[in-house]
Specification:
- The strands form seven sheets. Strands 15-14-18-19-21-20 form a six-stranded mixed beta sheet, covered by helices on one side.
- The chain starts with 7 loop residues before the first helix and ends with a strand.
- 33% of the residues lie in helices and 22% in strands.
- The chain folds into four domains: 8-162, Methyltransferase, Cobalt-precorrin-4 Transmethylase, Domain 2; 168-231, Arc Repressor Mutant, subunit A; 244-407, Heat Shock Protein 90, CATH 3.30.565; 414-489, Winged helix-like DNA-binding domain superfamily/Winged helix DNA-binding domain (Arc Repressor Mutant, subunit A, Orthogonal Bundle).
- It has 490 residues and is an alpha+beta fold.
- The model is unreliable at 1-5 and 289-294 (pLDDT under 50).
Length: 490
C-alpha cells in the first residue's frame, strides 16, 4: 500500500481539524463506508482538480466520518483488501487515472475507531481524468468539468500561473522540523554568506528565497524548490523522492550487467559537487603520453559532465511522475537522461537562448554557479569534445525523455559516417556562433588529421550537405576555398 509515512498523530490531528470545518469543501469530502471503486475514481479526479482551483496542495477523501455532523463513526472500508475483480483497488485506480497521480491511502485509528484518509495531490499541469473524463467539485457535488466551461478556463489559468517549484513538498511543519529536513548550512555556504546566529533569521532568509513558506495556521511548508535544492534526504519528501538522480555503472557496452547503482540522497544544490565527484570516480580513464610521463585522464572532460548533468536536473519535466533523471556509465559512452521533451529542437541546442520550464530552479542554480547563465553551456560541451577530439555528443529524444550522450575517444578512421556527419554539423554550428565559418581546413583541425585527408574531409562535408545540415555560406563560391554555415544560419 502506498504511503507518505505520515505519523499517525499528524494524521489524527489533520482529521480533527478537517472535521471542525462547517461543511465539505471542493477539496474535502467525508464518507462512512461507501467504497464503490467508480465513485472513488471520480472523486480523486474531482478533488485533485478542485484543489488546484482552490490553491490547495492536496485534497482529502476521508472514510469514517459522518457527513453533515462530521462526527467520527469509524468505517469498514479497508483499502488494503479492496479489489476490483481480481485486481487490487489501488492498482486499478492508478491505471484508470490520467495523467498518473501519486495518491496515498492512510488507514489509521482515531479514538479507537478505524479511519481511512485518502490524500490526493493537486493537479499540476493538466486536469486529472478518470477513465478519460475530467471531473470537478461544484458545491458538494461531483460533476463533469466540461459542463462548467468557466471553471475549466480558470483551471487552465491556474496551471499556467503556478510553477511546480512554488508548490509544497511537505506541509504543516514546525520550525524545528524545517531545519531538520533542510540543509540550511549548505545554503549559506553556497551563497557565500555567514550563518545567522538564531533560528528566526535562518527561516526568514529561506523564506525570502521561496524555499519555504508559512501556511494559514502559522506552520511551515517546505516548497518543492527548497526540497529539490537543499533536502538533507530526498527520501524524507515522498513527493520528491522519485526526482533523485540515479547513477548506474554497467559492465561493457550494454545494460546486461550492472556493476554499481547509486541513488542520490541530497538535494540538487547541496549534493551537486559530491555527485560530480562520484561520477568522475566511476568513469573509465584513458592513458595519454605527456611531455615525459604517461598519465591517466578521465574519459570525458569534467566541464562537459557538469554542464550536461545540470541541464538534466534543471530542464526535467516535473509533471511526469514515477520517473527522474538518470546517468548511465558504459565503457564507451556516458548517457544522461531526464524526463520531458526539450522546449527547443535538439539540433538548435547550441544557438537558442536559454529556455526552461523551471525558471526558479534554473535561476538559483545559475546564481550559485552550477550551470551557465547565458545559455552557452552546450557550446562549451561541444567545444570541449573538439579539444579532446572526441566523437561529437548526441542529443536525442524518446517519446517522454531527453538524452545527451558523450562518447569515448575514437580515431578518425574508426568513426562511422553518421558520427563524422554529426561532428561536422556541430563544428559548423560552433564556428557560426563565433561569427566564423567552417572550412575543410577547420574541420581537419577538429578531427586532428593532416592535409593528406583533404579528400576524406570533403566527402564528409558533402554528406553533411546532403543531409541538409549545412549550406554554403556563399551560393556563388567555388569548392576550393568553400565556407559553410549550419542550415539555420542563412
Amino acid at each position: 500500500m502506498s504511503s507518505l509515512r505520515q505519523p499517525s498523530d499528524y494524521l489524527s490531528g489533520l482529521v480533527h481539524e478537517l472535521c471542525k470545518l462547517p461543511a465539505e469543501t471542493p477539496w474535502l469530502e467525508f464518507k462512512h463506508n461507501n467504497s464503490d471503486p467508480t465513485m472513488i475514481g471520480e472523486r480523486i479526479s474531482a478533488l485533485s482538480n478542485s484543489a488546484a482551483l482552490e490553491g490547495k496542495s492536496a485534497a482529502y477523501l476521508i472514510w469514517g466520518v459522518e457527513d453533515g455532523s462530521h462526527r467520527l463513526v469509524g468505517t469498514s472500508f479497508d483499502p488494503v483488501m479492496a479489489k476490483v475483480g481480481n485486481e487490487a483497488l489501488e492498482n486499478w485506480l492508478r491505471h484508470s487515472l490520467t495523467p498518473p497521480l501519486h495518491f496515498f491511502f492512510h488507514p489509521i485509528e482515531i479514538e479507537g475507531l478505524p479511519v481511512v484518509v485518502l490524500e490526493i495531490p493537486r493537479a499540476t499541469h493538466t486536469p486529472i481524468q478518470f477513465k478519460g473524463i475530467e471531473y470537478i467539485r461544484s458545491a458538494s457535488y461531483t460533476k463533469k468539468l466540461k459542463d462548467f466551461p468557466e471553471m475549466e478556463r480558470e483551471l487552465w489559468r491556474v496551471f499556467e500561473n503556478t510553477p511546480y517549484e512554488s508548490l509544497p513538498a511537505t506541509e504543516a511543519l514546525s520550525a524545528e522540523e524545517v531545519l531538520r529536513l533542510i540543509d540550511y548550512p549548505a545554503y549559506f555556504d553556497l551563497m557565500g554568506m555567514d550563518l545567522p546566529t538564531n533560528r528566526d533569521q535562518i527561516l526568514a532568509r529561506l523564506k525570502s528565497e521561496n524555499l519555504i513558506a508559512t501556511d494559514e495556521s502559522g506552520k511551515w511548508n517546505i516548497l518543492n524548490l527548497g526540497g529539490l535544492l537543499f533536502a538533507k534526504s530526498l527520501a524524507e519528501f515522498p513527493r520528491l523522492a522519485r526526482k533523485s538522480l540515479r547513477v548506474i555503472h554497467y559492465q561493457g557496452r550494454n545494460r546486461i550487467v550492472t556493476l554499481h547503482e547509486q541513488v542520490g540522497s541530497k538535494g540538487y544544490a547541496n549534493g551537486f559537487e559530491g555527485l560530480i565527484s562520484y561520477i568522475n570516480g566511476r568513469l573509465p580513464h584513458n592513458e595519454v603520453l605527456g611531455t615525459a610521463l604517461r598519465k591517466e585522464v578521465p574519459m570525458f572532460p569534467e566541464m562537459s559532465i557538469r554542464e550536461l548533468v545540470a541541464n538534466a536536473l534543471i530542464h526535467q519535466d516535473f509533471s511526469q511522475t514515477g520517473t527522474g533523471p538518470m546517468i548511465e556509465i558504459f565503457e564507451d559512452r556516458l548517457e544522461i537522461t531526464n524526463p520531458g521533451l526539450p522546449l527547443i529542437e535538439t539540433d538548435r541546442f547550441l544557438d537558442s537562448p536559454p529556455k526552461s520550464r523551471n525558471e526558479a530552479l534554473a535561476s538559483f542554480m545559475r546564481r550559485i554557479g552550477i550551470c551557465e547563465e547565458r545559455g552557452s553551456g552546450i557550446d562549451k560541451v561541444v567545444h570541449e569534445t573538439e579539444v579532446f577530439q572526441l566523437p561529437a555528443p548526441r542529443f536525442e529524444t524518446t517519446p517522454l525523455h531527453t538524452r545527451a550522450v558523450l562518447f569515448a575517444h575514437k580515431d578518425f578512421e574508426a568513426m562511422t559516417t553518421p558520427e563524422r556527419v554529426q561532428a561536422c554539423y556541430l563544428h559548423a554550428c560552433l564556428r557560426y556562433m563565433l561569427r566564423d565559418f567552417m572550412t575543410n581546413e577547420s574541420l581537419r583541425e577538429r578531427f586532428g588529421v593532416t592535409s593528406e585527408k583533404i579528400a576524406a574531409i570533403s566527402r564528409i562535408i558533402a554528406a553533411t550537405k546532403k543531409a541538409g545540415l549545412i549550406v554554403p555560406a556563399d551560393k556563388s563560391q567555388g569548392n576550393k576555398f568553400a565556407r559553410y554555415i549550419p542550415h539555420w544560419g542563412r
